[in-house]
């Protein structure tokens, strides 16, 4: 247990355009915070850009870990816009658990020295818009959560991860470019999120065998032929899948007996309706938002459905597979006013009583108002819900 005399500083945050000429000021601020037992330090520096014609020179202030040699109380460190220098004999940061590097030049030996240091036991590590021109190696026995976000691919820099206790990993490729090839060895990894143009060749799924939750965002490669077959073949423990804003999605078949939660959000483009087939015996919740699709769903355990058909006013398939799902108990729907007017429910005709599953316990219906330019959803469900209850009582 660390004890400090007098007043204690719990957090130090520097967010100011300081340059090299102010390095002594930064040093004094950090030293003062460390002396008073600071647990959190955020050093957010502004880099200087010099236009020299075709190229741009970016000058970042140097920051030496020597300043943190006695920072045994420090648990959270966020460094932005600087060049980090790590002395070979560095032995501080014994209690550091979270490290965030933003707009930082990552040198070849920096991470190796950091993770090989027996005194440092990182749990959370983030690289955000960082620069490196070589294969990156992240080897750690203590790391639980890893985020690599918007780091540019320059040639063919691989990212190699060996982390036996890693639980979650989020990767976001820089802009619309291809992401880094990822080699993952983390048998405890259960949550994986990937945002990029393609995943089947640069990442694959062989290192994700024990992943239970996966998010695929903005993929442009064909899901049916290149992604989904590999996903469900390699990730044998999958229970929750989210597919969001992926472009090349047409005829799709999702078959997985262990899948419990599925989200398909704003995928594809507005073309003639294609078919999505879902065969998931243990699926308990399903969320869909998007264009016109024809659904065939076999999911006897499905209890909860969120359905957004108001993405396009031309979407005639506003009800999707809902009339065929007889066991759902919780239903939320968003439809446009034109879809509501054409819906049999609004007509309050008793012959459509079978439209609602007999086990339904909770319903929430929202209608959008695109005709007069207002985009805010308005609740339209009260009369319909009362009508449904009346039908059930008869």
UniProtKB/TrEMBL annotation:
Residue stretches making up the At1g61320/AtMIF1 LRR domain: 45-232
Entries under SUPFAM superfamilies matching the protein: L domain-like
Pfam families: LRR_At1g61320_AtMIF1
Recorded superkingdom: Eukaryota
Protein name from the UniProt record: Cyclin-like protein/F-box protein
